[in-house]
Amino acid sequence: MAEKRKDLIKISSGEAEQPFRWSAGADGSKFLTEIRDHKRFMGIKCPKCGKVYVPIRRVCGPCYVEMEELVPVSDEGSIVTYTVVQFGFVDPSTGKQKPVPYCYAVIHLDGSDSYILHFVDETDPEKLKIGARVKAVFEDDDKRTGSLLDIKHFALLDQTG
Ligand SMILES: [Zn+2]
After folding, report:
1. Would you say residue 4 lies in a domain?
2. Which of the four pLDDT bands, split at 50, 70 and 90, describes residue 104?
3. Which of 39, 38, 42, 40 is nearest to 54 (CA)?
4. Residue 8 within any structural domain of the chain
5. For 28-54, what is the mean pLDDT?
6. 57: CA distance to ligand 1 center in Å?
7. Stated pTM of the model
8. What average pLDDT does range 61-87 have in this prediction?
9. Count of domains forming the chain
10. Ligand 1 centre and the CA of 61: distance in Å?
11. How far, in Å, is the centroid of ligand 1 from the Cα of 100?
12. 14: in domain
C-alpha cells in the first residue's frame, strides 16, 4: 500500500532582479505624456482610411501610409474581452506579484478603431460582461510617471443608468 504524501515540497528560485530601460519612442512618448500631464488618451488618424489608432503608431498597416494627425479619444469605452487572473505571477512592470484575483481586459475606447489592454477593478463574473462600459481611473497628479500604470485601472460604469 502506497504511503500518502502529506508534505509538498516547495522549491524557490530566490529573488531575482533585472533592471532595464528602453525608449518609448517619439509616438509612444507623446501618448504617455498626454496621459501623465493631461489624463487624456491621444490617438492618431489615418489620412486614407480614417481609422484612429490608440496607442499612437507611425504607419497605418492596411493603408501603409504615414500618419500625423493626432486626435483625442475618450477615456471611456467598452470591454471587448477579458479574463480574471487567478494564478499569480511576477508582473514585469513592477517586479512583484500582483495579488490575485484581478481582471485584465481588452478595451475599445470610444472614438478609436483599435484596442488597449489594461486592468478592470472588478472580478465578479456577474458584473463583468463583454460590452460592459468602463472608464479610466488615473493615478493621482503627483504619482504619474509616464507609464501605462499612470492609468490605475478601468472602472465599470453603472449599467443601470
Ligand atoms: Zn489607413
Report:
1. no
2. very high
3. 42
4. no
5. 97
6. 12
7. 0.83
8. 96
9. 1
10. 7
11. 39
12. no
